[in-house]
Amino acid sequence: MSETKITHVAAGILIRADGQFLLGSRPAGKPYAGWWEFPGGKLESGETALQALTRELQEEMGIRVTAAQPWLVQTFVYPHAHVRLNFFKVSGWEGELHPHEGQQFAWQTPGRLNVEPVLPANTPILRGLQLPAVLAFSNVAELGETAWLATLQTQLAQGLRWLVLREPQLDADSYAALARQTLALAQEHGCQVLLHGQPELAEVLGAAGVHLPARQLMQTTTRPGGWCGASVHNAAELAKAAELGLDYVVLGTVAASQSHPGGATLGWDGFSALVGQGWPFPVYGIGGLSAADLDAAQAAGAQGVAILRAAWR
Predict the structure, then answer these.
(1) pLDDT digits (tens, 9 = 90+) for 56-67
(2) How far apart are alpha carbons 38 and 267 in whole angstroms?
């Protein structure tokens, strides 16, 4: 039996300074004509994904890419083709957009699309675009509940919009009580709160979703509802997250941290090697990091950084 032929595609997510991203309609005469997608096209013989993206965006819309970061890799089986899509975040380009193939363009706000239908292979990408560059983890264990809640109010007022409530030292009743207080504060500011390892409680309390520790991830057979991420340390755990269709992962430990003194670290080279295997979700770096490490993280292929102590200073 012959192996299924995989069509390799490069796709660009053009992102403006205001955070909006570009979708284009598929031209008449192509499969799924009129459906919306991220612009790009097939790799030609000998091309890298970035070279193909640069060529395709020049041909399709007349722009020259000046800054593009590899982001996600999505494999999808359509009735007409089995495709492997290499998505890039494109933050810099020269020239004005022109529909060279008769397509339409539409700038979109993450989480609030106003065009449809969108090609199904793009669904994880659209969710990923709603995620922040900095993901905060709570730190009640060190600050104490009263001080942390006060700091949380300050951070929410300053724009904190995503939070993982991770407090493994608390018993079930104490954690649930803290979760209720946290959610009440967060909802006033539109902050998404993920509970740590407790999908049932997240559903009961109306949290945005759940973040799974690595051990729980490997034992999970059905993806929890809502937003769902996980902590991972190696390729096997990354593969399990992909199998479950998670929205994101945090990968570490990247650098030495107070939580894991003397422990093994990936460094950005080790992090980049794992991320570079290609995963259908954004990956955050974690471990000894702060917002100051954001550029290094993204250069290594990360969505951004997940931070604990640095989030509450």
Answers:
(1) 999 999 999 999
(2) 32
Numbered ranges of CATH 3.90.79.10 in the chain: 6-122
User: Quick check: 70 and 49 in contact, CB under 8 A?
Assistant: yes
Residue 24 in tokens: 């284009």
Q: Which CATH superfamily is domain 134-312 in?
A: Aldolase class I (3.20.20.70)
Q: Is 80 exposed, middle or buried (0-12, 13-18, 19+ CB in 10 A)?
A: exposed
Cβ atoms within 10 A of the Cβ of 44, count? 11
Count Cβ neighbours within 10 Å for each residue of 139-164 and write b for 16 or more, e otherwise: bbeebeeeebbebbeebbeeebbbbb
Residues 96-112: tens digit of each pLDDT: 999 878 889 999 999 99
What are the residues whose beta carbons fall under 8 Å from the beta carbon of 297, sequence distance 6 or more?
254, 268, 284, 285, 289, 303, 304, 305
249 and 285 Cβ atoms separated by less than 8 Å: no
Distance of alpha carbon 250 from alpha carbon 211, whole angstroms: 10
The CATH 3.20.20.70 domain(s) of the chain lie at 134-312
The SS3 assignment for 146 reads helix
Nearest to 303, CA basis, from 274, 277, 281: 281
| Integer Rg of the chain from CA | 21
pTM over 0.90: yes
| C-alpha pair distances (Å), 114 with each of 22, 67, 302 | 12, 27, 28
**How high is the pLDDT of residue 2?**
45
> Which amino acid is located at 163 in the chain?
L
Quick one: DSSP state of residue 4? P
CATH number of 6-122: 3.90.79.10
